[in-house]
Amino acid sequence: MRFSIITAFPDFFHDFLQTSIVGRALKAGLFRVDVVDLRSFGKGAYRQIDDYAFGTGGMVLMPRPLEEALNFAGEGGNGKRPFVVYPSPQGVPLTQDIVESLFHQEHVALVCGHYEGVDERFAEQAVDVEVSVGDCVLTGGEIPAMAIVDAVSRLIPGVVGKSEAVTKDSFYGGMLDYPHYTRPASWNGREVPEVLLSGDAAQIEEWRRSRAVARTLSRRPDLLARCGLGGYLRGGFYLAAEGTLADVGRVREWADLCGSYGAVLLLFPASDSGDREKIREAIRMELESADDKKPSKVKSLPFFKLLPSFDHLLRWVGEKEKKKGRPLLVGVSDKKGHGEEAQEREAGGERDGARHWLDVKRFLLEERRPVVFCFRSRIGSEEEYGRNLERCDVRMIPPEGGRLPLSGEIAAVLDRFLGSR
Fold it and tell me: Which domain holds residue 186?
């Protein structure tokens, strides 16, 4: 990977590019940074690169020197134009998402503004993205440029000694990082948590995940929309959909989705034993019909379990997760439900007692137990599903207000709850 930094003050970067992790990585040839002196492209005896703004205001970097410096930076790039980043107070806030997108660019050019910034015509013509490191104004773009190089470079394999140090950082998986402690075990009356001194790797990992969740919920709840729950629940993530012969043709598609996201799909219930046998046989034939042209994870994924009732399903999941707490049941419904409780909810102005998916996500993170999402096939029994809904711990407004087919709802739930950004 290559960075080009266009700046009127190249001395800013001398120590930065020779120090610590960035310096060692550059010396090892893991990536490349070229500092382009903007004044080399200035005009006249004084190498002018800026001029007064039209109207009123301070000095602004001129477009022609910037353009020539950018063209020079692009030379030797296999004919490919660099991706141009302009650090600016008016830019989009720098996030890990942007850092990761820059990591996938072969050549990133960073244009460091100064004084009042750069001529707007140059920005309109050449800049791909303006990025801000915070709601503040600095004297120039050099410090933000360092921050961007530092953040992107640590994603390059080998730059950071342990890859785990990158993948468990704040924001990488959507969550904030967990707390860190070092010796001594007691300092100023403050003790290191006992679990970290236990030597039990499993308990330490569980503690770290729970602390990452707690920090994210208390400090940055806005991150919930971007983070996946995989690894942060204490137990598995299950999907339950009524099993009917009409659904069998989509089973492979559902199973592929579940396999990709790390969930387990359950088909339930088929109270009639004859129906269960028909569904089981239809699924067997569906699997055997798979060919090499339709690769599927179904054959190796324990993706379905035919059970005679909802109670059987709960017992089955409970036995599978017996050491991790009672499973939380999430009903996915646009129905009002049944009974006096549902009527009270409706009278109180609640939307059939259901909650927004982000609210449900927070609830699941706070509880940190195995989860079963309960869907209703459009062909399945509404009455029976309504009774099952009353037993759920929480109900969620279905994706797109219930207008999606069952396959679409399953895909949306998997992505919103297990997908990462």
Answer: 176-227
